[in-house]
Design goal:
The protein is α/β, with parallel strands linked by helices. 43% of the residues lie in helices and 14% in strands. It is built from ten helices and eight strands. It has an eight-stranded mixed sheet with strand order 3-2-1-4-5-6-7-8, with helices on both faces. Strand 1 (7-10), helix 1 and strand 2 form a beta-alpha-beta unit.
């Protein structure tokens, strides 16, 4: 599964999950283009990878604009001679409820997550296709994009859109031998560190101790390193037949998310008029689908006030 000789771009890889992805790709042998909006953070990430024997360069720029996507691809080609792997991880949050969300709150998140994924994938896939590279496109989604989450209209829309684009790209890029997949990670991050439910897990991680089994097994919640393996696997030749998938990972758990499918089908001769729906909707569709994440109760020993 070695990635020796491969070249990867990882957006938003100065810290957190993105840095873990970049480090694992480098550990497996790939040369990596690191990306962050902060020059010091990007430089530290490059130094960290090089200290472990890897090869890396940085592009300091926000994703979203086409110019950034072009810089990322040209840097990969100029520094390392080509491009085989793209991981679109860069993102921002502007959380607030619908009636308080400003145009800027919405546009900023959509621009970085959704447009940034689109422009980077378009540039990378074009290079791969034009140069006969059987490349790997790996886009980062979120459980919020799969199920929704209170206060995250913008983030949910962007992450759901990313999965929709991935399924489309898998179809469009198949003939070129380029795969496109979405990864749905669950891990301790700066965002989850503020959620009381995860406090015991975050405390353990910060202390360098193993997270309790309840989090790792029951919730599939772990560290950034727990997620990085799926990135390197999907980037490898071993995953050449895996495309168009949404793959969840975290802690000790691996999941394959279903593509949306009808869960109930009913017919009414003459069509479903308002009156027919009034009389028969509940019986026709059965149980409605759940909305949002449903977490099990915390064991008493893991509760924090």
């Amino acid at each position: 599964m070695s990635l020796e000789g491969k070249v990867a771009i990882v957006t938003g890889s100065g810290r957190g999950l993105g840095l873990a992805y970049a480090q694992e790709l480098a550990r497996q042998g790939a040369a990596v283009v690191v990306n962050d909006v902060d020059e010091a953070t990007a430089s530290d990430a490059v130094a960290c990878i090089e200290a472990l024997g890897g090869r890396a360069v940085a592009v300091v720029a926000p994703v979203g604009p086409t110019d950034t996507a072009k810089r990322l691809v040209s840097t990969a080609v100029d520094a390392f001679g080509g491009l085989d792997i793209l991981v679109t991880n860069a993102g921002v949050l502007r959380d607030t409820v619908l009636w308080k969300m400003s145009d800027d709150d919405f546009d900023t998140v959509i621009d970085v997550h959704l447009r940034g994924t689109f422009t980077c994938v378009r540039e990378a896939a074009t290079y791969m296709k034009d140069h006969g590279v059987a490349g790997r496109i790996i886009c980062i989604g979120s459980p919020t994009g799969q199920r929704g989450n209170f206060g995250q209209t913008n983030y949910a829309a962007a992450k759901a859109g990313i999965v929709g684009m991935v399924r489309t790209w898998a179809l469009e890029l198949k003939r070129a031998g380029i795969t496109a997949n979405a990864v749905i990670p669950v891990a301790a991050t700066a965002m989850t560190a503020t959620v009381p439910y995860f406090a015991a897990a975050v405390e353990a991680d910060a202390a360098g101790e193993p997270m309790p089994a309840f989090f790792r097994h029951d919730l599939g919640f772990g560290t950034s390193d727990d997620v990085s393996g799926i990135i390197a696997y999907l980037a490898s030749d071993a995953a050449a037949d895996v495309t168009g998938q949404a793959i969840g990972i975290g802690g000790d758990r691996l999941q394959l998310w279903s593509h949306p499918e009808a869960v109930a089908t009913a017919y009414h001769e003459g069509g479903w008029t308002t009156e027919a729906l009034h009389d028969g909707f509940a019986e026709a569709v059965g149980d409605l689908q759940p909305v949002g994440e449903k977490f099990p109760p915390l064991p008493e020993d893991l509760q924090r006030s």
